[in-house]
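ok trying this again, last paste got cut off
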Amino acid sequence: MKQLITALLLYFAVIVSSHAAAWVKLNDQNTEKLMLDKQSVLQKDTLKRAWVKIEYKTPQNNPETIDKTYNSAKLLWFFDCPAQKVATAQVFQYLDNEMVYSAAIDAKSAEFIDPVPESHVDIAMRYVCKPEKPVVVAKPTKPEAEKTKPAPAKPEPAPEAAKTEKAEKAPEPPAKVATKPDVKASDDKHKTHWTYQGKTGPDNWGKLSPEFATCASGRNQSPVNIDATTHAALKPLKSIQKFAAKDIANNGHSVQVNFKEGNMLVLDSGAYQMKQVHFHSPSENTIHGKIFPLEAHFVHADSKGNLTVLAVMYTEGKANLGLAKLWGQMSKEVGEPVALKNRVTPSELIPENRSYYRYSGSLTTPPCTEGVRWLVMKNPMTASKEQIKALNDVIQHDNNRPLQALNGRIIVE
């Protein structure tokens, strides 16, 4: 059996080195370079597979072969794109192009895991699982002679027939009319009543409307308790936080502050624009089981609508000057946004130390949409007891969703 496995590995090694590869660089850092053979990307049943190559600047140690080192590796990865999970089926390690280690397992027996954000498998998965662009089929063009051929003259209808035709042919409605059903559907969706207590509370959100089904069936829901974490080389946050808030509103579920354009967050080589911040009391996410009296969610979106939420915790202490200016115009009545009179920038509400935890989650309110990148700041801000109470007095109830199960997700720091 061992000889058979060795023979298979050598066979695959020949295939890896002999097929016409088309390597594309996915990531190049000071320590290693990640490449993927785009010619090897194939759909296999419900999975996608691809060969990747990692070149290391310094030799690496393999725990399986302590006496040997390697400086490059080729791996066959299988991707479950809908579930966002990855498994390794084959590994070949080389030292100066000489193979020093190999291992293989059948894809059906391999363990599929959630990739650590910004790891090699995470970067490769984003490349392999990206949606394919639809193929646009060009309409065939008519021959030039046919283009210039005059259309046959249409016989004029008899006077009576002309009257009938004119009466039956109703004018086409303007393009605007087509949007009315969409607007109505959107309005109906927003009319679905949900709360934080009782029959319309979090335990029943998934039953209130088909649009809210993910609140009950989702496997990557937020908020979570941040406890066991994995250390990773998270990049420092790059952001612009100098443009002032625009208006403030009490929407019945929270107090929301909307921002002017210009505040940006760079994440995963993409730009996310800050849209709004809203507040939860007590906190929704917890850190090592600790509940904070106040949590702010800064919601960002990229050009495709992908969301990133930057969460900031507040402890009871010194009054926050930014909150003081916002709370001065906070209304107890649910209503439309009111333009802010005072200048408030995001930097007044976010700690200077930008250390953070990261995990993949969801919106914490219906429809509980998943695929949201969560960045939870490690360092809290402070808010006075009076400021925390002022928010509670306006909302008149706790507005935090209960903690959700991790279901195997990894939290990195």
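PB: full thing came through this time. The domain at 2-128 is CATH 2.40.128 (Lipocalin).
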